[in-house]
Design brief:
about 0% strand
Length: about 290
Amino acid sequence: MKGAICLSLAGTIWGGLFLAVRLVAGAVEAVPLVWMRYILAFFALYALGCYRHVSWKIDRKDWKLLALVGLIGQTLSIVTQESGTLLTSAQTGSTITAATPAFMVLFGWWILKERLTFGRIMSVVLATIGVLMIVYDPDNFQVNLLGGFFLFVAAWTWALMAVFLKLLDRYSPIVLTFYGLLVALVCLAPYSVWWLATQADYSLLLTPQVLLSIGYMGIISTTGGFVLWNEGLLYMDASTAGLFMFWQPIVGTFLGWLLLGEPVTLWFWLGALLIVAGVVMAMGRPKKA
């Protein structure tokens, strides 16, 4: 029960993340938004690591892989995720990125040499079809195809990062996330500082709505959601835990409909159902030879 509560809270918090991104639309671009979010999360994770007395040491041979994790996951994936959400809707962003576990199947087979079964292949096919149905929804012409493409890239790159993290599982998740954020902060700093110095409209940027949204993304979502998720994993295996990710699209869709008036069409639900089916199939463990 404790594991289920922690994982459900994490999925719920991450569902609210997409509403927070939509609330800052027009006030800040995706790159400086991610950068400001990470600054808050960086200090929060450092304080958490010190509180839990984690070891910050990383072996020299693992730094290249850790830097790759930061570039692919914390930089490319999150920037494309928030770019896509800014261009589409909270429901589209939360649902498409929830397909990540299905896309992990191919990277697990390619990089970790995990067994590729028919069921796992079908999980990727179903999740991909579901994403395409949401992006090319004929009943919702407001869907932005570029935004959908960004979200598709976000799901695939996050899946690739998750597989790389399995190669670094001897380190604390807090430490891996902390250094991944550090890589992203360095990569995103030049453009973010330039944008804040020359392009930002501070009459919009400093409104309570925008500041609270950025605070939610940095402290509650990135740090709080992370802590709850890892706490939940102590009580449940990863295959079962992955199913709690479905709180993300449920909450994201509900909040987008309730607070932003985003339409929810039949095509959206059909696509979401295929994504759910794909992820459930991906969570199934292949039989041992």
